[in-house]
Amino acid sequence: MFQHIGITIHTQDDIETFYKGVLGLEEVRRFQVDPDLSERLFGIRRQVSVAVLSRDDFRVELFLSDERQHGVYNHIGIAVPDPQAAMKKAEMHGFEVTCIERESKNDLLFIRDHSGNTFEIKGS
């Protein structure tokens, strides 16, 4: 069904510490989108660097840009082998972690990268 998602990040460091270190994704490739193509596709006329990372059938394109969005409900659900270990690793690297304990259901676990992208973490 879904082949990939593309999101904006603001720091190169998030690729190593958050996407690789916390979420366990592996880098597949990097490329540049030139200003003309960027404007035609996204309405933003500037060159942008993109890193493609994946794990299993999940692939994400990380667009490195200083463009920021605020106050959105967007989030990405991702399954990891050990959600509690991912949460601890995220906290160790200074990422925002939210855990809402629930009695009758699994806890709600969310991690936010330094660019404000939000991930709901579930067990695989």
Q: Give the end-to-end Cα distance, rounded to a whole number of Å.
A: 18 Å
What is the overall number of helices? 3
The rough form would be described as elongated
List the secondary-structure elements in sequence, H or E.
Answer: EHEHEEEHEEE
In percent, how helical is the residue content? 10-25%
Strand order of the largest sheet: 1-4-3-2
Number of strands: 8
Chain-averaged pLDDT? 90
Beta-strand content bin: 35-45%
Q: Structural class from helices and strands? A: alpha/beta
List the uncertain runs: none
Largest sheet: 4 strands, mixed
| Rg over CA atoms | 15 Å
3D architecture notes:
- This protein has helices at residues 13-22, 35-42, 83-92; strands spanning 5-9, 26-33, 48-55, 58-64, 76-80, 96-100, 108-112, 118-123.
- With 124 residues, the protein is of the alpha/beta class.
- Helix 1 (13-22) runs antiparallel to helix 3.
- A 4-stranded mixed beta sheet has the order 1-4-3-2. Strands 5-8-7-6 form a 4-stranded mixed beta sheet, with helices on one face.
- It is built from 3 helices and 8 strands, in the order βαβαβββαβββ.
Which key phrases capture this entry?
124 residues; alpha/beta; four-stranded mixed β-sheet; 3 helices; 8 strands; elongated
Layout of helices and strands, plus pairs?
Blueprint: E1 5-9, H1 13-22, E2 26-33, H2 35-42, E3 48-55, E4 58-64, E5 76-80, H3 83-92, E6 96-100, E7 108-112, E8 118-123
Parallel strand pairs: 1-4, 5-8
Antiparallel strand pairs: 2-3, 3-4, 6-7, 7-8
